Amino acid sequence: MGNEIRLSDLAARVGARLSGEGDAVVTGVAPIEEAGPGQVTFLANPKYLHFARTSAASAIIAKDRVEGARAAFLLSDNPYFAFACVVELFHPPVRRPAGISPLASIHPGASVGKDVTIAPFVVIEEGAVVGDRTVLYPGVVVGEDAVVGEDCLLYPHVVLYHGVRIGSRVILHAGCVVGSDGFGFAPSREGYRKIPQVGTVEIGDDVEIGANSAVDRAALGVTRIGRGTKLDNLVQVGHNVVIGADTVIAGLTGIAGSCRIGSRVMIGGQAGLAGHLEVEDGIILGAKCGVANTLHASEARVWSGTPAIPHPAWLRMSMLLPKLPELFRRVKRLEDAKIPKGEE
Amino acid sequence: MGNEIRLSDLAARVGARLSGEGDAVVTGVAPIEEAGPGQVTFLANPKYLHFARTSAASAIIAKDRVEGARAAFLLSDNPYFAFACVVELFHPPVRRPAGISPLASIHPGASVGKDVTIAPFVVIEEGAVVGDRTVLYPGVVVGEDAVVGEDCLLYPHVVLYHGVRIGSRVILHAGCVVGSDGFGFAPSREGYRKIPQVGTVEIGDDVEIGANSAVDRAALGVTRIGRGTKLDNLVQVGHNVVIGADTVIAGLTGIAGSCRIGSRVMIGGQAGLAGHLEVEDGIILGAKCGVANTLHASEARVWSGTPAIPHPAWLRMSMLLPKLPELFRRVKRLEDAKIPKGEE
Amino acid sequence: MGNEIRLSDLAARVGARLSGEGDAVVTGVAPIEEAGPGQVTFLANPKYLHFARTSAASAIIAKDRVEGARAAFLLSDNPYFAFACVVELFHPPVRRPAGISPLASIHPGASVGKDVTIAPFVVIEEGAVVGDRTVLYPGVVVGEDAVVGEDCLLYPHVVLYHGVRIGSRVILHAGCVVGSDGFGFAPSREGYRKIPQVGTVEIGDDVEIGANSAVDRAALGVTRIGRGTKLDNLVQVGHNVVIGADTVIAGLTGIAGSCRIGSRVMIGGQAGLAGHLEVEDGIILGAKCGVANTLHASEARVWSGTPAIPHPAWLRMSMLLPKLPELFRRVKRLEDAKIPKGEE
Q1: How far is CA A307 from the centre of its chain?
Q2: Domain encompassing residue A105
C-alpha cells in the first residue's frame, strides 16, 4: 500500500501502548502465522500463542506481552479494536467513484442524492429515495417508495422490496433481500390462503447484513433491525421480528415471526428461534441452539442446546451424554445384583 | 387506504359473525398491540389475550369473544382465514402495470403472453414461455425452454434454469433459484466426476417459494413441488425430491435428494431430511428435527429431534436431559450404598 | 437425443463388463423406477433392489448382477462413475454459443479471453480477467481485478467481489457469492467497529459451488477452496477458512472463520463448524453435526452429533435417549426398593 508508519506513531494513532522499539517502521499488516519483518500482526486467539513467540513480525497487537516474543508489542485493553484501526490505516476504504451509469434504470419519480454511485443494471423504482454518497453496485433493485440513507453500500443484486427503509452507513452484501413477504398462510378447505403482507421493514443506521440473507416485511406493522446490529450470511429474519441495537447474529440462523431480540445480544451460527418469543438484552445464544421460549437474562446469560437451557447445565449434560450406554449398564448391574430372585 | 366499511358489511363479506355494534365504521387493520379506534385487529395467539382485553380497536377477529374486551368481535371458526380476507379488503393487491421494458432482453424465439409485465434487465431465453398477466421483476432470468404459467409473480433476480416448468399463480421471491444442478458426483481415483443433471423441475399451481431458496433439477426425471405448497426463505430442495400438495416448509430447511414428502405435511424451520426417505401425508415435523428414515403417519403424526422420534417421546426425553447429572449422582449413590465392599 | 448405442459398445466406452445380450441397442437413460425397453438405468441404492428385479430396462449398471432380473447388466467396480459416463454419452453437455452480448457492461480495462460467452447484463469491472471459453450467464458480476480461469460456468447472478481468483473448469451456480466481507467486528463502547476485510478468496480448479452459497473473503490473507472440492447450495464459508482438495460439503452447512478442512472430507447437510478448528483429511461428518474442536482422523473417521463425537458412540447414545424416561423410573425403583426407610 506504500504506507510507512513508525511504531510509536502507530501506537499513538490507535490508542495503544508501545512496548518495544518505537523507531521501527512498519508498512503493512498480516496474519500471525505469516507476518514478517516490517509487518504488524494481531494475537486474537490463545491457540496462536506459539506463533506470537516465534513471529518475525515487527509488532504484535495484544492485551499483554507474550513471554519470549521478539516482536514489539502494541498493548491495548481492546486489542481487537486496535487491530481494526491498524488495518484501516494500512487499507483505507476505497470508494467507487461517484457517478450514475447510463445503463441503470432510474424512474423519473425517484429521488437520488448527491455524489451517489449507481452501477450498471441498477433499478430504482418510482418514489424511491437514495441518500447522498450511497453506492449501489450492479444489479441492485430499490423498490417503489423504498428509502436508503446516506453513505450506504449495497453490493450486487441486493433487493429492497417496495417501501422498506434503510438507515445511513448501512452495508448490505450481495444477494441480501429486504422486505420479502412474511410466511403467513391461513389453512382452509381449499388449501392455504395467503395473508397479504402489508407491513414493511426498517433497518437502523450502521447495520451490516451478510450475503444472501433475507429479512421479511411485517404482515402488519414493521420488522425492525436496530442501530449497529450485524447479521452474517444466509440469516433469515421472519415477519414482525424486532431486533435491538448492537446485536450480532451469525450465519444460517433463523428467527421466526414476531420474535423480539434485545440489544447487545450475541447469537451463534445456525441458531433457531421459534416465533413470538423474547430474548432479553445481553443474552448469548450458543451455535445451533433452538430457542422455544422467552429467555430471561436474570435466569442465565448464556444459553445452549435444543431446547435451549443455561449453558453450564447444557455443558454438564453434553459431557455425560456419551456415557449413557455405560449408565444403562450400571443400572442393569444394580438391578441384577440387588433385586433378589423371585421378587419381580 | 381510504376504505370505509361498516362492521356489519365487513362481517358479511368475510363470512364472520358480528358480536357488537354493526354500524361502527372501520378504515383499516393493525396489529393487536397497536390497533386503535376505527381499526380491525386479530387475536392470533393466546399470548396476546391481554392486548385484546384492553384494546381500543373497533373490532377484533377471533374464534370466541374475549371476556372484558370493549371491542366488537368478528367471530369465525377460522379466524386466521377471516383475517386474511379482511387484510385483503383493506389492501387489495396492487399489480404492476402491464408492459414490457425496452431494457429487457427477450429472445425472438421466446413466447410471451398477454398483459405481462416485464421489468428492466429481465432475460427471457430462446424457447421460453411466459403466461398471460405474469409479472417478471427486474433481473429475472427465464432460461431456455422454461415455462412460466399465468398470473405468476417472479420477484427480482429469480432464476429459472433451462427447461423448468412453473404453474399458474406461483409466487417466487427475490433470489429464488429453480433448476440448479443436483449435488451428484461419482468418486474416482482422479477426484469426483460430475453426474450430469439432465432432469428438470415442475412446480404446481399456487405454489409460493421464499427468498433465496433453491430447488435443484433432477438427475434424471423430475423434481416436483405439488399444487399449493409453500416454502419459506432459504430452503434447499435436492434433486428428484417430490413434494405433495398444500405442504408448508419453514425457513432454512434442507431436503436431500430423492425424498418423497406427502401432502399437507408441515415442516418446521431448520429441519433436515436425509435422502431417499418418505414423509407421509399430514405429518408434522418439529423445527430443527433431523429425519433419517421414512416416517409413517400411523406411527405418529408429530415428530421431533435428531434422529426424529414421535414428539411426545421427544418431549419427555428433552425434559429429563438436564437432569442427567443428577441421575448419574443418584446411580453413584446407589452403587456406593448398595455394593458391599470387596464385592467388586 | 437420437443416440443409438449397442450395449457391447456402451460397456466398452464406459469401462464396464457386459453380462447379457451385447447386440441390444439402447437409446437413453432413465431412473430405475421408470426405465423401459431401450433404456439403461442404474442401481444406486439397495432400497431399489426390487425395482431392478422387475425392471423392463434393457440394461442396469450395477456392481453385481441382481438375481432374477431380466435386464442385461453393465458391471463395474465403480458403478456410479460408469453411470456418470453413460449419462454424459446420452446427454453431452450443450454449451452456449460463444459471443459477447451488446447488453453486457465490460470495462475497457478488463481482459476477456477467446471464445467466451457473455450474456446480457453481465458486468465485468476494471482489471478483471475472464479466461478462454468461460461462460457468464445473465447478471453475473465479475468485480475489479477478479480473475476467472478457463472453461468455467458462472450461472445467473453469480457475484465475484473484487480481487477474488477462480480456477479453471469451475462451476458456480446461480446466486453464489464469492468474496463478501468476513464477519468481523470489534466491540467498543460506541458499538461494533468493522474490521476491514482486506484479504481475498482463491478457488481451485474443478470446484463446483451450489446456488446461493457464500464464501467470505479473508480478513487478511486468503480464504481457500482446494481443487475438485464440491459445495452444495446455501453453504456458508467464513473468512480465512481453508478447505483441501476433493472435499464435498452438503447444503446449508456453515463453516466459521479460520477453520482448516482437509482433503477428501465429507460433510453432511446442515453441519456446523465453530471457528479456528481443524478437520483432518478423510474425515466424514454426519448431517447436522456441530463441531466445536479439532477432529483427528486417528481418533475416529466418522463423527456425529453436537458436540460431535465418534459416530458409533453417537449411535449408541441416540438409541438410548428415548429410553431415558424408563431409566429414570428404573433408578427410582431401585432407590425405593433399596434405601431402607429412615436412612435418608
Answers
A1: 23
A2: 99-316
